[in-house]
Design goal:
Length: 234
């Protein structure tokens, strides 16, 4: 695993759990509003397996879960073995993903070692490339969402969430299309946008475009929940 950064303790990344976060380098998306842009490019600063093991063991009894984030973790060829390694240390494991590789999602879900998945849905299908870069595949994301819903029906100890950042240029009409394009999910979070500290020069105008307001979402909440009853704003 090309893990290049660690967060010792988080109260936000795993619902109801105190966790550490491992950040993988590399991503197949290029979201103009990305908050982890430093992780997108190639690098040789990977943290060793031994360092990660020591880092986690030092926190055993304090944290009870580990989140694998990125970047995009499903690009890592040894993701399943890394999940198993963390699980064997006694931690619950959560995966953050953009849902772009449903074939990998099948592999990690079938391993039975994941406790939680958070999957980002970036935009309605017709705007996926615009919001997440030319390599973004909305159909793959739809497949991944369906996989998670199906797996939870078979495994009561597994949880997942879908989340969408109310990024600049997304309108309430886009959010409405998105919630209709996917089957009802266990939890769909709408997250307010925060301007990234790092961004490409050519994206400066985009990151300053207007966003859907909390007030506008609230006005349309009943309609959104007609298609996604478990939708929540946070």
């Amino acid at each position: 695993m090309n893990i290049t950064a660690l967060e010792a303790c988080s109260l936000l990344d795993y619902p109801g759990r105190l966790c550490s976060v491992l950040f993988c380098r590399g991503c197949n998306y290029d979201c103009f509003y990305c908050h982890n842009r430093s992780l997108l490019c190639e690098g040789s600063d990977a943290i060793s397996h031994q360092e990660i093991e020591s880092f986690l063991l030092e926190r055993k009894g304090f944290i009870d879960a580990v989140v694998i984030s990125g970047g995009e973790p499903t690009l890592q060829k040894d993701l399943v073995s890394c999940i198993g390694f963390i699980k064997n240390l006694g931690f619950s494991v959560k995966l953050d993903t953009n849902g772009s590789r449903p074939e990998v999602m099948v592999e990690v879900i079938d391993s039975g070692m994941l406790s939680y998945v958070a999957l980002d849905v970036k935009a309605p299908c017709s705007r996926y490339g615009e919001m997440a870069g030319s390599s973004a595949d909305a159909l793959a994301v739809k497949q991944s969402v369906a996989l998670l819903a199906s797996y939870q029906n078979r495994c009561i100890d597994f949880n997942y969430e879908v989340r969408t950042t109310l990024a600049p240029s997304l309108m309430i009409e886009d959010i409405l299309r998105m919630v209709q394009e996917h089957p009802p999910v266990a939890r769909w979070y709408l997250q307010e946008y925060r301007k990234p500290k790092q961004y490409k020069d050519e994206d400066e105008q985009k990151i300053n475009l207007p966003c859907v307001s909390r007030t506008e979402v609230d006005r349309n909440l009943d309609l959104l929940r007609k298609y996604q009853p478990n939708l929540v704003i946070r």
